[in-house]
Amino acid sequence: MSEPKSLKGPDLRRTDVASVFVSQRYIRSEQEALTVLEQTVAEWSTAPWPAGILSLSCFLSSEKDTVLSYAQCADGDSYQPFARSLRGPAGAGAVEYRPRRSVVPPGASGAPGCVIIATFDVDGAERQDQVMNSLVDVLDVAPAEQPPGMLSANFHTSVDASRVLNYAEWTSVEAHLAFLDSRTRVKTLRASGDIPGIRPIGFRRYHLHRSIDARDVGSAVHSARIS
Fold it and tell me: How far is it, in rounded angstroms, from Cα 33 to Cα 209?
């Protein structure tokens, strides 16, 4: 199989994604983190993919101590058997999410300069909807009121109803730092912190290491099956 080409990142607007699997791992050093990322990419690049897997993107945190993988799937049944067939970091455990709601400012375009992954620990599906809808209400406002530099905010809910994840794209690290000192940031903290049963876990800033898309791997990917 030929080497898949690198893309700018996952296409968060595609409509065929039903499940997303996210894995975050703390790593002791930058060199070890880069090794883990390269091993993951190498194994995903050479293994035949089942039809339900659509893309894999790997990220390194700004602190160089955490690696993240984000796999888009057409269903929730293909990923786990495939991941178990892989060895080493490529087969690391992941949390299954459903993509739910997105906020995309009018005119937002271009590749993000950084990605912010923010997560919340919640008490059940009702709380998932509450915190997600509250944050969307804060961010989905008139263009003049939207945070400068935010390209998108994409909310996911875990299938076990214990987590909410926001995958936010920003034009640059500087734009996100400015947001942290803004009134909108204060509003998002109130929106997530004033609801009982919601516990913000925090956020990490990531940079894309590599992205692989099934559409660029070849037809062999779609004919493979994992037993």
Answer: 11
